[in-house]
Predict the structure.
Amino acid sequence: MEVLLSPAAWLAALLIFFLRVIDTALATLRMIYVMRGRKWVSWMLGFAQSILFVMAITVVLSDLDNVLNVIGYAAGFATGGLFGMVIEEKLAVGHTHLQIVSPHNGARLVDMLREGGFAVTEIPARGKDGVVHLLSCYVLRKDISKVKEIINRVDEDAFVTSEDVTPVRRGYWRA
């Protein structure tokens, strides 16, 4: 028990924790860049992640009697995943397809979105209560909040869904 209370034991556990936070955050970001087809960014993140992992696991395995090392490892892993998600959310890399069903102000919504610089395709549609405006809008993920703001201002009853997309060929993309 004396070993667990020593400053060296706590420092080792903290080192492992921070190495795993960074390692796992990089792993989370790497997977997102892999899914987005960003090969070189994925490679660089994977390289750095591997080095940090080896460093962390080396410290853990050097003193398996110190339960703080295992706790630091597990806590760092869990925290790193969360931290990676927060970073990715801030970076907002990629494109999103928004499908907007506007029961009331579809025509005005199209005008406002286009005025805001967003490409919108109108599709004739019929909902359970009659004619609705079905809008298809492809945006950069970092612009989603701007589009949502326009939608809320024009038609707060609009139904909106989103899905990540990878542009393949041509079209209008707001830079």
